[in-house]
Amino acid sequence: MSVLSGKNVLLGVTAGIAAYKTSFLVRNFIKAGANVQVVMTPASKDFVTPLTLSTLSKNPVYSTFYDKEDENEEWNSHVDLGLWADLMIIAPATANTLSKMAKGTCDNLLLATYLSAKSTVYFAPAMDLDMYKHPTTQLNIEKLQSFGNVFIPPTSGELASGLDGEGRMAEPETIVTFIEDHFLSNLPLQGKKVLLTAGPTHEAIDPVRFIGNHSSGKMGFALAKHAASLGAEVVLITGPTSLSIDNSDIKRVDVISAQDMYDAVHQNYKNSDIAIFAAAVADYKPKIIAGQKIKKKEAVMQIELVPTKDILASAGKIKKNQFLVGFALETENEIDNAKSKLNRKNLDLIVLNSLQDKGAGFRSDTNKITIIDSAENIISYDLKSKEEVAVDIFNEILKRIGA
Ligand code: CTP
To answer: Where are the domains of the chain?
Structure first.
């Protein structure tokens, strides 16, 4: 699967003959699983039609802030487009557009969007060889790179002018591969190993019954997916759940009991850089597991329970360089209880769910969390989807590990 799968790619097209190649570029991004939107300079429409690019990208193509002819036309917000993009690529980038970008000129929608973009901006120049060699163009390219933009070099070959030399826009496949490689090597968790626990545990009473809880595993699975999207190699140790996950960067290990989870965690913990324990592990298990199904009797039934091993605390005890995160589900004195759990289990962060908050906790698709770090800084969040909560949790981790 491409690293661009599910990513929002904003393509800016400027007026060079190489614009005709952008139809292949859009197709290659779509093939990689990206969502594509296109912004064109007005003059680029002479080289490739908006209809072609909108059909291939399955999205409207923008070139003006609004269309005076069309009463229903809405204002096209460069700010919204800039925020939407996970990456922006300007291809072909003409000498004129490069110069305007370097100066901060903003006289069309594409340039306004470039200035508003929060993501990495790639640019693939295309022009005649003498224009390309000109010191002004070279200076503009250097300047744009110094702003953090990423230069995709042109290649040498026959140019539209008939001359031979440097200035041909990189081929669409080369551009996509270049961006994939660059994107991968710049992911903040590239080369890092993340260990996660998720879901409930089931503690057997007899061959057909168990003690369990309502944990769905959704929070842990959302964390696993986000860790993988940040470039990490993930081991997801999960108790029984109906959830599925299909991602080659996530190794799923299915377990049933707290003891199974303990064993699986300790097989993977030493090699991990970040460990997040989102599982709702049973605190007690039956002292004896009956070998046969327990038969119904008239008398009161009692099951003797013994504590399970605290997996998180055991990880805290042997912690070396791992960044260790635990969860706390509390019903009263939430902050104090969470702080004492953070210290007792030697954690770097604790994520607190209060059952007093509607929409938080087990089974729901949403969660409302408070994060407390080892310096006892407290950060509270609104009710959000578990996917968004996963992003918030990793943002706090990334800040603290300096990734
Ligand atoms: N946890 C664990 N192993 C256990 C119990 C809990 O790894 N046997 C982890 C959970 O995954 C969670 C954290 O510990 O990250 C907090 O669990 P919780 O049950 O809320 O805390 P306890 O320490 O068990 O305290 P209490 O039940 O008294 O609140």
So the answer is: 8-185, 193-401
pTM of the predicted model as reported, rounded to 2 decimal places: 0.79
Alpha-carbon span 100 to 241, nearest angstrom? 54
What's the gap in Å between 313 CA and the centre of ligand 1?
A: 8
Q: Bridge-partner residues for 324, per DSSP?
A: 275
Give the residue, out of 263, 277, 393, with the most ligand 1 atoms within 8 A of its beta carbon, to mutate for a pocket test.
277
What pLDDT was estimated at residue 236? 98
pLDDT reading at 148 higher than 90 = yes
| Dihedral, CA of residue 162, residue 168, residue 172 and residue 175, to nearest 10 | 170
Indicate if the pLDDT at residue 43 is higher than 80: yes
Architecture of domain 8-185: 3-Layer(aba) Sandwich (3.40)
Q: Is 337 a catalytic residue?
A: no
Q: Write down the residue that tokens 């002819």 correspond to.
A: 69
CATH: 3.40.50.10300, 3.40.50.880, 1.10.760.10, 3.40.710.10. Which one for 193-401? 3.40.50.10300
